[in-house]
Amino acid sequence: MTSGRAVSPGSLGAWLLKVDPAGAGARELLAGGPREVTRCVRRSYRTFLMEPGQPVLLWVSGRDARMPAGVHAQGRITGVPQPADGADGADARQLEISVHLVPVDPPVLRAQLLADPLLSRIEVVRMPAGSNPSYLGREELARLRELLPTPGAD
After folding, report:
1. How far is CA 21 from the centre of its chain?
2. How does DSSP classify residue 17?
3. Considering all CA atoms of the chain, what is the largest pairwise distance in Å, rounded to the nearest integer?
4. Are 61 and 88 in contact (CB under 8 A)?
5. Residues of the chain with pLDDT under 50
6. Which of 130, 146, 118, 7 is closest to 61 using CA atoms?
7. Residue 107: CB partners within 8 Å, gap ≥ 6?
8. Is there a contact between 131 and 15 (Cβ–Cβ < 8 Å)?
């Protein structure tokens, strides 16, 4: 019998955290190279699967032409989900997770993902208003890595 859950430790390739380009700090988040940041996630079974060292991707959502939707950073989880500032412990619906992010330049845009038979089916493309965190499976992450720019390959 299956659990009906979309992701498990065995199927996880990478977590995908979303950011609104119109939101506070979106541009600053991607400016200036690698950095340690804290991102908000919604408490769910997924947040209990998040562990330091797991791969993470930063997805810019929306339709802002200055910062189009797609994968704009990659990195690793560096902490465990904690109640957001001001949240009430175990009852907190909003959690924060620490991550180390490196901007992807150029980003892998939504249009590129839509053109790929495998990546066009990832959760964030199928359900843009879905869960945060979202995820990629192992095969999806392997394919995405083929599209990511190689550091220092200019």
Report:
1. 14
2. E
3. 49
4. no
5. 1, 152-154
6. 130
7. 60, 68, 70, 71, 72
8. no
Encoding tokens for residue 122?
Answer: 């990832």
* Four-point Cα dihedral 33, 59, 145, 4, nearest 10: 140
- Which stretches of the chain are assigned E, i.e. beta strand? 12-19, 35-42, 55-60, 70-77, 82-83, 94-109, 134-137
Query: pLDDT digits over 40-65, tens only?
Result: 999 999 999 999 999 999 999 988 88
Written as six digits, the tokens of 13 are 């390739």
What does residue 119 show for φ and ψ, rounded to 5 degrees?
Answer: -70, -20
Reduce the DSSP state of residue 49 to 3 states and report it: coil
Query: Tokens 């541009």 correspond to what residue?
Result: 27
